[in-house]
């Protein structure tokens, strides 16, 4: 049963939730457009500079399930404020004239904020009327993805005029505002909640996820030290298997693994993993293609700022899809919307594979991608939350976002591997055909996502009531 915050808080609640989700996504994405500038400013290699993005994804993936469990308990408001305080402190580290290690520490602290998205969904489900909460949750999911399109061009512009510290200074400014908004608007959790963090499970999950994301981001490790990569992959699998065993035995699991096995939740997570890989693959391909100089025989040689502007259609169309999806959701099952969105993303791959000779075609492909991603993100929570008790909203969605993070990292790694394989010896840039090959693989990934979502739609659970609430709370089992 939802509770209503005080009137002054209620007016600010939804805007604050949307703003916080947008800020943590945009700040986390700052690592991508600044990698070259970081390498130049700190006199490190591009591989080392890549860690300003990798470490953010790592800390976010590790923190998300822990914050999701804390967010299910009575101290959710304190958890939100403390997490944002960590993000603000990390943002300050990225601005101060510290060595490269200090920048990495700051980026790791910023990544912790990625776990707040699921908490914002839990707040919406607890404190807003059912119809409004569904639309708000969908929009929170969308802005957590399209935030990259907001952060890229601003970061590029500030870097060109003020250097890399100025770009990170933007992150400090907006995260401080987000902390103020949360302090003013976030209500306390409903009475009767309890949450205990499974420390052993958290450590096992952290170790397994860290290795998975590390292996996905370090392409050179697979090409030059295959034996080491294989050993680390085996260790990652063992750690994750140990985590599953620990969660099944625990009375207070970090993630309800039994609930994850529900056909709706399992299917949604599979779709998110494969679909997320495909979505981030296309995003990687388009941004890299746009910045490739003309001397390579293709590409547009765009600066960081102008290349960031290419992502504006991604954000705009994603937002449009996010606003339209709740309306369609009243008439169409969420699983069908996920499937349809995967088809749209596949259409973006087709456009990129066939038409990329001018910027207008690139804008069209990124716009189609944005619309598909927006619809996918907005519909996904409906699939999972239809069979999830309100008290487990943050925990259930946090696991889905961990799956998404791993999928994104895999998509980026796949793109890099394909382009590296398509680069002739002695050449700096890959052949144009390598982009086509990567696009075809992306089309296959989105076809698999579509079929998974359609299979999920055909297996409508009898546990799901017409209102979208679970007919039986799992705590009664």
From TrEMBL:
InterPro entries: MFS (IPR011701), MFS_dom (IPR020846), MFS_trans_sf (IPR036259). One of its GO terms (cellular component) is plasma membrane. Residues 457-477 are annotated as: Disordered. Keywords: Membrane, Transmembrane, Transmembrane helix, Transport. Pfam families: MFS_1. The chain crosses the membrane at residues 12-31, 51-68, 80-98, 104-123, 135-154, 166-183, 195-216, 228-245, 266-286, 298-322, 334-356, 362-387, 399-422, 434-457. Residues 10-462 form the Major facilitator superfamily (MFS) profile domain. Signal peptide: none annotated. Residues 463-477 have a biased composition (Polar residues). It is a multi-pass membrane protein. GO terms for molecular function: transmembrane transporter activity. It comes from the Bacteria. It is found in: Cell membrane. Coiled coil: none annotated. This is MFS family permease. It comes from Longispora fulva.
């Amino acid at each position: 049963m939802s509770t209503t915050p005080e009137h002054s808080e209620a007016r600010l609640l939804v805007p604050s939730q949307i703003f916080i989700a947008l800020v943590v996504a945009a700040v986390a994405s700052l690592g991508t457009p600044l990698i070259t500038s970081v390498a130049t400013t700190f006199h490190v290699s591009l591989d080392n500079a890549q860690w300003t993005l990798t470490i953010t994804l790592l800390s976010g993936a590790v923190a998300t399930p822990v914050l999701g469990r804390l967010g299910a308990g009575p101290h959710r408001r304190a958890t939100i404020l403390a997490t944002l305080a960590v993000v603000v402190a990390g943002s300050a580290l990225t601005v101060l004239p510290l060595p490269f290690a200090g920048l990495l520490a700051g980026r790791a602290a910023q990544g912790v904020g990625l776990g707040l998205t699921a908490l914002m969904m839990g707040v919406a489900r607890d404190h807003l009327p059912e119809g409004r909460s569904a639309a708000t949750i969908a929009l929170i999911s969308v802005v957590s993805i399209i935030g990259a399109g907001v952060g890229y061009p601003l970061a590029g512009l500030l870097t060109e005029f003020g250097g890399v510290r100025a770009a990170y200074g933007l992150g400090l400014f907006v995260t401080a505002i987000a902390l103020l908004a949360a302090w003013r608007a976030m209500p306390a959790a409903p009475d009767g909640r309890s949450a205990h963090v499974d420390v052993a499970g958290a450590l096992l999950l952290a170790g397994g996820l860290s290795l998975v994301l590390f292996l996905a981001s370090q392409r050179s490790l697979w090409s030059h030290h295959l034996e080491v990569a294989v050993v680390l992959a085996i260790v990652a699998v063992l750690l994750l298997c140990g985590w599953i065993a620990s969660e099944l035995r625990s009375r207070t699991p970090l993630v309800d693994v039994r609930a994850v096995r529900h056909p709706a939740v399992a299917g949604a997570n599979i779709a998110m993993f494969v679909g997320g890989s495909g979505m981030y693959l296309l995003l990687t391909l388009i941004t890299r293609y746009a910045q490739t100089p003309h001397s390579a025989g293709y590409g547009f040689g765009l600066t960081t700022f102008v290349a960031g502007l290419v992502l504006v259609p991604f954000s705009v169309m994603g937002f449009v899809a996010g606003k339209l999806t709740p309306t369609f959701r009243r008439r169409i099952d969420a699983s069908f919307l996920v499937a349809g969105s995967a088809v749209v993303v596949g259409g973006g791959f087709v456009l990129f594979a066939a038409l990329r000779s001018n910027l207008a075609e690139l804008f069209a492909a990124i716009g189609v991608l944005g619309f598909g991603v927006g619809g996918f993100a907005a519909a996904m929570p409906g699939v999972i939350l239809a069979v999830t008790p309100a008290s487990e909203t943050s925990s259930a969605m946090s696991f889905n976002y961990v799956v998404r993070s791993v999928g994104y990292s895999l998509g980026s790694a796949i793109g890099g591997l394909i382009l590296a394989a398509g680069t002739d010896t002695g050449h700096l840039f890959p052949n144009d055909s390598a982009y086509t090959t990567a696009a075809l693989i992306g089309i296959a990934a989105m076809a698999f996502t579509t079929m998974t979502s359609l299979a999920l739609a055909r297996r409508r659970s009898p546990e799901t009531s017409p209102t979208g609430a679970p007919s039986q709370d799992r705590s009664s089992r």
